Amino acid sequence: VASVFSEAQRNTALHRRCTHQLLKMLKKHPLEFKKQFYECVHRFLPVFKKEPAVHRLVQFTVAFLLQVWKCSDLGDIASAFAPSFIEHVLQFHNAKDKGVRFRVCQLVAGVINALPDDAEISDDLWGELVEKMMMRCKDKITVVREFAVEAVKRLQDHTDPEDKVMTLLLRTLQTDSSKDVRCAVLRNVAACKTTLPVIMQHVRDEREEVRVASLDKLRTEFGLRQLSISQRAWVLEQGLGDRSPPVRLAAVMLLVG
Prior knowledge:
69% helix
C-alpha cells in the first residue's frame, strides 16, 4: 500500500492505476489493507505546508474512498469503508498539531462532499461530524476553519430556521476576521429565506473578495426573482455603484442572470 501511495503523490495522472491496484489489495486482504491504508494517511496528516505532493495524496485518498463506495463487488466493505475512515480521522480533529487539524478537516470535507446523495451515514457518525466540525469552525488557524466550513456544507437542514450548523455558519460569516473564511461560508451556507438577509449584508463587506462572493451566491443560488423588489434595488445599487471593478462585474452578472 505504501508503494502505491508513493507513486500517487508524484502525478495525478497515475491515480486511476493506483486506485485499481489498491482495490485489488482491499479485496484480497481487507483487514490488513485497512491497517496499512490508515498508516499511509497518518504520514501526511502532520504536513501543514501546502505542498503539491501532499495535495495529490489528499485528492487520491478521497478519490479512492469514493471508488470503494461505488464498487459493487466488495459487498458490505463498500458502504462501510468511507464512514469507518471518517470516524477514524475524526479522532484527531482536536490534535495539538495544526497540520493534523488542517488535514483532518480537508479529508472530511473532501469525502463528505464527494459521496453521492443517496449515501447512508449513521446517526451517530452524523452527530459526531456535526459536533467536531462545528468545533473546528472556531479553530484559531484560518485554513482549518475554511475546510471545517466546507465539511459541514451537507450537514445543514435548510428547512429548519434554527438549524445549529446553519446558525453557526451565519455567525461565522458575520464575525470571522478572515476574508477567506467568510468567502468559504458564502460558498457553502445553504441558500434559503433564513440565510438570504445575512448573505445580502455582505454585498457591503469591507473586503472586495467577499462582496464578489456574496453577489455570486445571490446569482447562482437565488437569482433576482427570489428577491423582493426592494431587495433587488438595494443589491444592484450597492453592487453597480461599488468602487471595485470585479464587484461591479459580479453585479452585472447578477442583473443579466
